[in-house]
Structure formats: C-alpha cells, structure tokens
Amino acid sequence: MSRFTTPRPKTPTPSPTSTSASAQVSRRPALDWRIRFGVLSLIWGFSFLLIKVGTQGFAPFQVTFGRLLFGTAVLAAALAVKRERLPRGARTWGHLAVAAFLLNALPFSLFAYAELTIPSTLAGICNATSPLWGMALSLVALSEDRPTRVRVAGLGLGFIGVLTVLGAWQGFHGLDATGTALALLASLSYPIGWIHVRRTLAGSSHSHLSLSGAQLLLATLQLAVVTPLFTGIPDGFPVGPLFAIVALGALGTGCAMLLQYGLVAETGPTTAQMVTYFIPVIATVAGVTLLGETLTWSTPVGAVVVLAGAALTQVGPRRRHRAEPQT
C-alpha cells in the first residue's frame, strides 16, 4: 500500500533510500528479475485485501502498528545478516522521521481507516493515483521539473479516470465519501513524502537497507505512541485478521522493500516502477474473487483510464521521479 511515491512517484509504500547512489548488487540474484517483479506485484496487489481482513478483527491503528512492527523485524534481520548499521547523525534521523510519517505511518493508517467503509478494490485504485498527485506537486515544488504537453495531458486524463471510478456523473451515488477521501489522501501523502526525501536525503552515503530500516523503525515508534491513545487492548486475537497483519508486515512491507531495492539496483528505477501499474489490477481481482466485492462497469474502465494517465505523466525527457507504491 505503493510505496506510492515520488514526485513523479510509489509507491503504496517505500523507503527514501531508492534515491541513494549506494544501492549496488554484489552478485547476480538466484531468481530472475522478472520472477521477482511478478512476486512484488502480487505482494503489493494483495496488500489491500490483507488490510481489509486485518480491520475485521483489529482497529485501523492496530493494523498499521502490526504491519510496521513485522516489517521492521524483517529489515532488522536483513541488517543483522549483512552486518550493516543504522545511519548516524541527528539531521539524518530528523529527516527520516518526517519520511517515516509521510511514507509509512500516515498513508498506512489512512488506508486502514478507509477500508472500514470502502472496498479493497477501490482502495487499490485510489493508490494508483499517486503518480498523478506526484506530477501535479512536482510542477510546483521542484523547479527542475518542466511540464510537457504529454505529461499535462496524462494528468488530466488520470483525473478523468478518477471521476469515472467514483461515478461523478451520477452524483457519486452509493460511494462512501469519507472512506474514499481518506484513500485519496493516503495516495497524496506519498509524493509529498518523496519530495521531502529528494530534497533532504538524495545522495546520502548511507545504504538503502540502513535508511529503510531506520525509516520503518521510526514509523513503528510513531504508531507505538499513537495507537494506545486511540485504541484499547483487543478483546481477542482472531486467527484470520492476525495472520493478515503478519503477512501485511513481513511480506507486504519488509520483504517487498527488499525486493524493490534489488529490482531498482538490477534493472533501474524505470523498469522497477512499472510494478505500480499492476497493483490495482491484482487488488481488484483479489477483492472480487476472494472477498466477494462487487464492481460496476465504471470501476475497471476508470481504473484503466487512471493507469493510462499515470503512465503518460512518466513520459518526458526527465525520468528522475519514480512510482513507489506504498500500501
């Protein structure tokens, strides 16, 4: 739940360290990158289903806290295996704290609250709007970004797709406005976070893994403070929702970040960011087939238009901003 998302963002989810120049692959991975690409797409696509299942047994903040806790555990294990240390310096930790809030704690929580009232399929499609938000924000916040006709057309097309998904012509009938707004705000949070990352942590001498681990640790601590203030002790620990949270954290956050790092290092960000366009498709299929969620014709049609617009926003002489989907 992307990663999102950089100014031309994505992802749901991510970590600030995709901008680090130190990301290198020391040896050829055992699995072909295409297989890992497919696995990453499935993991992030199923994240919205796992959020929905998790909220059936736990409060949204508890779902997010569990997700971050298990995700941090995976990265802590990776740091121990590779014998890497967390970054040093108060300034770096301060910027990471902001990144942790904007790229993890806030969007993860917003998606969890959104899925109390909207289908996981709609949440997955809202996540795909991160590149659109990122494109719009980058034109204002990043002076080196210059709009092109194709990118502006993609932005307009993408938001037409959003209106199609939401059924604007029929007055958004049957749509939970609050839940949808929360999901769209979650998607907006990603590019805001990545603009901050690009301005403060780009070119850091610390490794991707080190920065990612610190970022998730800080997000976990943030939720550890917030969760007790807004939720009580769970009445029980139902197996299904608990398993969903464990999978969401260990696979959808921790392992997904490691997979993404490897893909970016091996194939480059342009190829790796294509995962963004598979996430809403997988989220929709999973929600319909496994959760029995229903679709009207406007949902898949609008989703295709959103993805087409998002793809166009990536076209241009500069390809420095990538989709980082954070679910």
Structure description:
The protein has 327 residues and is an all-alpha fold. The chain has twelve helices and no strands. Helix 1 (33-54) runs antiparallel to helix 9, helix 5 (130-141) runs parallel beside helix 12 (298-313) and helix 6 packs antiparallel against helix 12 (298-313).
Distance between the termini: 1 Å
Figure out the total of helices.
Answer: 12
Question: From N to C, what is the helix and strand string?
Answer: HHHHHHHHHHHH
Q: What structural class should be given to the helix and strand makeup?
A: mainly alpha
User: Strand-residue fraction?
Assistant: under 5%
Radius of gyration in whole Å, from Cα?
18 Å
Largest sheet: none
Mean pLDDT: 83
Number of strands: 0
Low-confidence stretches: 1-26, 318-323
- Principal-axes shape call: globular
Which percent bin holds the helix content?
A: 55-70%
In short:
With 327 residues, the chain is an all-alpha fold. It has helices at 33-54, 60-82, 90-114, 120-127, 130-141, 149-166, 177-200, 208-230, 239-267, 269-272, 279-291, 298-313.
Summary keywords:
about 325 residues, mainly alpha, 12 helices, about 65% helix
